[in-house]
Amino acid sequence: MYRMSRSLSGPWIRPEQDTFDSRAYYAAKTGTDGKHRYIYGWNPTKELPKKNFNPANRISQDCCSWDWGGNLVVHRVLQNPDGTLRVVPEEHVDAALKTEHRIEAEPVLGSCEISPWEIRINGECGFGGVLLNPVPRQCKLEGELSFSPGTRRFGIALQMDENFDVGYYLTLEPGRNRLEYVSGIRFLGDDGQGGKMFPYAVELERPFQLQPDTFYPFKIFVEDSVLVVYLGNEIAMNARMYDHAGCRFGLFAINGRAEFRNVKLCTE
Known about the structure:
Oligomer: single chain
Shape: globular
CATH superfamily of the largest domain: Exo-inulinase, domain 1
Order of helices and strands: EEEEHEEEEEEEEEEEEEEE
Number of helices: 1
CATH topology of the largest domain: Jelly Rolls
């Protein structure tokens, strides 16, 4: 979190969006190279069950508690005209992933229109999904996304199986103006309903103002279990993906329509 002031003696102001990342971004500090300002912190691991929260046999590493330490993640910090702050990808990391791979799109559910530069998904009758390329061990998926008025949810999936059943969801919810990360841990539990395993209504989320028929740029970085997401040149979200690997990217829309354009998959 951060606060703003025109003077060291205050008053200190809390901006409406006062965080740099999700709660999976730990102990961040800022520094400068003399030209740019950066914030660097931990994408924490989930190695050990803690505080009776996890099952004794650890059937899922995704449902373990956050540890201290992990992998270093650096964001570049920019200042808006009103003094508020936002974060974007660190330019050297972004530039290192530049080998582009041809996008392979396969409709799975609902109806869709696919062209070399654009994928439109119709999920008005429930759920529409398209599977993309397998997720490389280290990669960047980037592009732009938009949604039609009335759409309930849409977004990008990672490590999806062939039936679009198991994996991780980066879900945009216009009605709540947020980006939400969902793994499969809510579907595990002693009673088979998930309620005993994970006591949060939302796993990870970032506030983001969403307007229909507006394209927002996104960049998604993956390295093994580490996931770092940037949206709209404004917000970032760190997360982990332990239980599922070696599967595919996906795009989806729920009770509405979504459009994805200029989608690129890049590796080193």
